[in-house]
UniProtKB/TrEMBL annotation:
InterPro entries: 26S_Proteasome/COP9_Components. It comes from Solanum tuberosum (Potato). This is Cop9 signalosome complex subunit. It comes from the Eukaryota. Residues 1-23 are annotated as: Disordered.
Length: 308
């Protein structure tokens, strides 16, 4: 019979190995379930549920299993079950998983759902409201902001400008101090809000509001925006100047948009380069009286092209 010291050593070693073995079992269960997702989704769902139950406390594997469960239920068209699983998944973001990992997963699911549910307004509304509520409770201001921007973009793409405006008000407020003045530390976020709002006013041809926001956007100095954001602002500014027949200003903005889109690797750069050529030609023609009369048919700057 072993000594007390031997027994203690044995007990100590066993307690160290047991959690590792348990982790391996949970990991195997997760990957076995994931392997069934395409061929037998119902069995996969049962397997993922087992992963959640196998963990003694909320941790990474349960979070991953719930993420896969959400996607599977969505593919199967079981939206109630999907939302139940999603709500359970969101309970993990406070402390069970790291903030960076939870943000990555939530963004992934948002893109997954948003990409194919644009016509299912009720589901989108419930999905985003659930997400935003959980992020508020977790005090994750950064992802709350990005999530609202994503929702804004969805409503913009399907011309739901009324819904957009409600979100824009919240986003503007989040970029202000308690006294209502602009928070200079949030210049980058403010430019992101301006960019989506400027697109809305460009689409609705509200040049008055567009000009106001365009001027505000260019006056923001305390920001390091993504070049795509500045590309959007400059492109919309170019269209605004074109509508006012300010060809030189339009050409300048379109060229700035082209440079920003090019830096971001965005295909909009090609269209903006075409705009640069068009507005530059119009600027050249208008500055030569003879060609201006020949091209426009008048001397007051109003076109008669296509008119008899």
């Amino acid at each position: 019979m072993g000594s007390d010291a031997d027994m203690e050593d044995y007990g100590f070693e066993y307690s160290e190995e047991e959690p590792e073995e348990q982790d391996v079992d949970i990991e195997n269960q997760y990957y076995n379930s994931k392997g069934l997702a395409e061929t037998d989704p119902e069995a996969a769902l049962e397997g993922f549920a087992e992963v959640v139950h196998m963990e003694p406390e909320k941790a990474d594997w349960g979070f991953k299993a719930l993420k896969q469960t959400v996607k599977l239920y969505y593919k199967l068209g079981k939206y109630k079950e999907m939302m139940d699983a999603y709500r359970e998944m969101l309970t993990y973001i406070k402390s069970a998983v790291t903030r960076n990992y939870s943000e990555k997963c939530i963004n992934n699911i948002m893109d997954f759902v948003s990409g194919s549910a644009s016509q299912n307004f009720d589901l989108l509304q419930e999905f985003y409201q659930t997400t935003l509520k959980a992020l508020e409770e977790a005090k994750n201001e950064r992802l709350w902001f990005k999530t609202n921007l994503k929702l804004c973009k969805i409503w913009f793409d399907i011309w739901e400008y009324g819904r957009m405006n409600k979100i824009l008000k919240q986003l503007h407020k989040s970029c202000q101090k308690e006294d209502g003045t602009a928070d200079q530390k949030k210049g980058t976020q403010l430019l992101e809000v301006y960019a989506i709002e400027i697109q809305m006013y460009t689409e609705t041809k509200n040049n008055k509001k567009l000009k106001e926001l365009y001027t505000k956007a260019l006056s923001v100095k305390s920001a390091i925006p993504h070049p795509r954001i500045m590309g959007i602002i400059r492109e919309c500014g170019g269209k605004m100047h074109m509508a006012e027949r300010q060809w030189a200003e339009a050409a300048t903005d379109f060229f700035e948009a082209f440079k920003n889109y090019d830096e971001a690797g965005n295909q909009r750069r090609i269209q903006c380069l075409k705009y640069v050529c068009g507005s530059s030609c119009a600027c050249f023609v208008c500055r030569l009286p003879y060609f201006g009369i020949f091209f426009w048919g008048r001397t007051d700057g109003k076109s008669t092209v296509g008119k008899k």
